[in-house]
Amino acid sequence: MSEKEILIQATGIKKSYNTSKTNKLEVLRGIDLKVYKGEIVAIVGKSGTGKSTLLHILGTLDKPDEGKLLFRDKDIFEGTEREIASFRNTKIGFIFQFHHLLPEFTSLENVMIAMMINGKSDRDKALELMKEVGVESRANHKPSQISGGEAQRVAIARALVNSPELVLADEPTGNLDTANANAVIELIFQLRNKFNMAFVIVTHNEEFASKCDRVIKMSDGYITSY
Fold it and tell me: What CATH number matches the domain at 39-63+82-225, 3.40.50.920, 3.40.50.300, 3.30.2350.10, 3.40.50.620?
């Protein structure tokens, strides 16, 4: 059996925030984490344990105070701001608890906006992805005209439109009813199987976490178990 390919690796990641002139809140206290190509990883733990902060650093939305983030052995934070932004826009997809679709645009336009940031415009690819996630019939509808579950599917299509190798999801089912949550969970596994992209998912949904390839538990800014 061939060795698994490490896609992204965090080493010694620390992050703190100043809450006042004299007080500092330590959020991440030394995180070591490897994510392999094509795997689905759940990150679980109580609120305030640093899960979302870790996700933001993995996605280069925030920088660590200490530590390294390697993507295919390249230290991402050694790059310029432009290089980091380019990495984020081409290699990483984001799914959040709230879909954050722009209300004045149609579903199709919302998906295509992620492309346009990279100077591309491929309507056929955007429509194909919307078909893949089951919302092609809502292409010309605005967010106010579709259901919450449909809006989250549009957001998933948006996250995938630049063909990222890693998708980071922060409570992607947290704002959905049980039926829609289960549908999104099933969809994520289908997408992994088809495109072989890795997913790192922060979730409080124990059933969802139990289905993932690995479950990483966090407490007080540390990883306590894999």
Answer: 3.40.50.300
